[in-house]
Amino acid sequence: MKLKKKDVAKLFAVAAAIGAGAAATAVAVNRRNKRKAAEELKRLPKGRNIYFLGNSLSALFGAAYLIKDFGFRGDSIHIYGKYAVDGCGSDESGFVCTDMAFIASENSQCLFDVLKDVPSHELEDISVKTEIENYNNAYPLSSAGRLFGIEGGDVSRNDKKQLAQLLRTLPDPSVTLGDIFGADFFDSDFYAMWQSLFLLERDSSAAEFAKQLGEMLFAADNVETCEGVYDTSFNRYECIYLPLYEYLKGCGVEFCEDIEVTDIDFDEENENVTSFHIVDRETRKTFFLNGGDMCIMTPCTVYEAMTEGSFDAPAPAYGGERFPLWRKLYEKRGGIGRPDELSEEPVILFTATFKNDLLTSRLFDVTMNSPGTLLTLTDSKWRMSVSVPMDKYFSAQKDGTYILTGRILNCGTEGSCVKKAAMHASGAEVLYELVCLLGLEDEWDEIREGVVNVIPVLLPYGGAAVSAGNQKALSPMHAAGNLACIGEFAQCGKAKGDMEYYAASAKEAVYGMFGKTADRGKQKKPVFAGFRIGKRV
Fold first, then answer.
1. 28: helix, strand or coil
2. Pair 505, 486: CB distance under 8 Å
3. What is the CA radius of gyration of the chain?
4. Residue pair 314/426 in contact by the 8 Å Cβ criterion
5. What pLDDT, in 10s, does the model give residues 487-536?
6. For 122-142, what is each residue's pLDDT tens digit?
7. Longest alpha-carbon distance in the chain
8. Helix or strand or coil: residue 52?
9. Nearest to 464, CA basis, from 342, 327, 292
10. I need a labelling partner for 486 at 20 to 30 A (CA). Which of 8, 51, 96, 323 fits?
């Protein structure tokens, strides 16, 4: 019998009651932690402020680490961003989901180190970390197979040797997967699974792929069923970003939203930031830093230059300037990456909203796949992958509304059924391509009747952070004396592609600014026992 979310919530409450006996110990630990935080706070220069330039998820994790590990008061932390926190759609207009990063059930130490202190947005007296763990214990992901369509080949003996060599010695970041592997490797089921999970292409960095393999190899036997991946009860925005945002606001962190940071000034030695300029609702302002103040900047995100299409129209090309602040800093002093050399690696995400479950149920009938898991359609020239959430994926979603999400990696390629490039396809054409790939084109009219909306979102830099050609363009983590960079486009020792990178890059930047080494926790070491080809449905 499948448990409903309200039943799971009751189970959580029972578990919390059982654990009440440990409350006295927890109180004592909290008192010790508060005393330790107070001691740290006394050692901080009076009036020191930390300015996050960009309200990215990494910025929120950075603010949490400042409070948690360095005893900063919330009112000394300021987060500036161009876009205010917003919702995700409605049953009437359709929902939009831009989730890309997954959560590994293992090796997510930095992520859960923060989320264990953040209260859940949906459930009382429970942390986000516990909510995620309990949800996945109640609804564990287990797919019949992650691939559907044309059967790919095996990984050759030579390519297996190359994979083993990658795990032993990281190549130069500029070396591509195509430089190492033969054409047959990219037609294999093994590559198809990893490509859809990590947004890989032939020109992706082999070093980044090696790090991804190393951190996920504990789940190599489970990648084919998604058992090594955690899901969330709702979308990542509502389950992680929003609770973290509310937690930080409750701590007194200042969120300066709908504000654009336009420039940064340095001292005469061009070493330390002295001021930064913003546009606040058409009013220009300048903030001057005091001694001991620091800036932490997000130079770029995968959502840079993102545009949204509709059921009848493709996502348009972005007409504005790309990462203008990053470019200005590069022109002023260098040593902060090479934004002028950053090339696009587009990804399209799409969200389909339905008023009946005809297509979602037929998808399960045809593929024998399970809810919540990522299914890659190997017949697709667009390299399309789709997923149907386990349950409601948005808190505003009503009963009787159904969601399907998907991603397209080969955006410039003509479709298998729709004879145009994916980036020129409307939401309706994206859905029709999916229907044809599932062999359901005879049911198109009936499926179309149940559609509320299909919204494609174009991310020009969706896969750019792992591109080999872009590795030298990325910003170093410590760009100047009192300036650090965080996020997907700042170099960090972790593998890109999962939620852990957002937290790990923030932790390394914050710790580095205070002359400390960030401990990522005990990493689970990969054990190489060969590579499985991939389970099909």
1. helix
2. yes
3. 23
4. yes
5. 999 988 788 888 999 999 999 999 998 888 766 554 444 433 344 444 45
6. 888 999 999 999 999 988 877
7. 71
8. strand
9. 342
10. 96
SS3 content of the chain, % helix, strand, coil (to 5): 40, 20, 45
**Distance (Å, whole) CA 288 – CA 388:** 49
Residue of 437, 129, 371 whose CA lies nearest to 226:
371
Residues in the chain: 537
Place of tokens 């001021």: 275
Q: What is the mean pLDDT of residues 328-350?
A: 91
Which stretch of DSSP H or E encloses residue 50? strand 50-53
The strand pairing partners of 264, in sequence order, are 276
Residue with tokens 């872009």, as numbered in its chain: 470
Task: Identify the CA nearest to 197 among candidates 157, 176, 166, 228.
Answer: 228
3-class secondary-structure state, position 44:
coil
Extract the runs of DSSP E, i.e. beta strands, from 101-221: 103-104, 147-148
Distance set, CA 82 to CA 64, 67, 261, 281 (Å): 20, 24, 8, 10
Facing residues of 50 across strands? 77, 294
Place of tokens 């005893």: 71
Segment (H or E) for 330: helix 324-333
- Residue-wise pLDDT for 276-312, tens only, equals 999 998 899 999 999 899 999 999 999 999 999 999 9
pLDDT of residue 40 exceeding 80, the answer is no
